[in-house]
Amino acid sequence: MAQKLGLPHISIFKDNSAVLTVDGVTTPCFDLGGAKVLHIADLITEASSYERAWVPAIKAIGGQITHSVVVVDRKQGGGELLQSLRVCSHALASIDLSLFDEALAAGRIDAAQYEIMKAFLENPKEAMRSFILEHPEFMKKALSGPEKTASRARLCLEKDHYGVADLYR
Description:
Helix content is 46%, strand content 23%. The chain is an alpha/beta fold and 169 residues long. A three-stranded antiparallel beta sheet has the order 1-2-3, covered by helices on one side. Strands 4-5-6 form a three-stranded parallel beta sheet. It is globular. It starts with a helix and ends in a 10-residue tail after the last helix.
């Protein structure tokens, strides 16, 4: 996207180091000199990556993420968290209950699937907690899966977001 817009691109790595690519040339990025940064992503849920990594990483190199553009906002509190971080959030589409109302009316999902999605949208944390408690093998499989999946599962348990970590110790 940055290339199409003729703008520099910043890549942030897991260790919060960053590189800047300008006109196809990539160099380490240590100081943005107070620059305002636009963050572009595919999806926003709770915005935990923004809070944990992206906003602090850009701040550490002298910049400020002022806007975020995403393709889809799943309406799970990410927009509100971004607002608290002073980041203006823009989404091309949002997923809310009206999407599933339409899917049910069109016969794309059944009533049971609709109720699962409705419960999730009303209280994602409790819906996920119930799912994990009802399907303990899901987390066990994730923990022994590919490294990316396993690291996300470990982070979920470390933060104990769903209050289930004791089941996996």
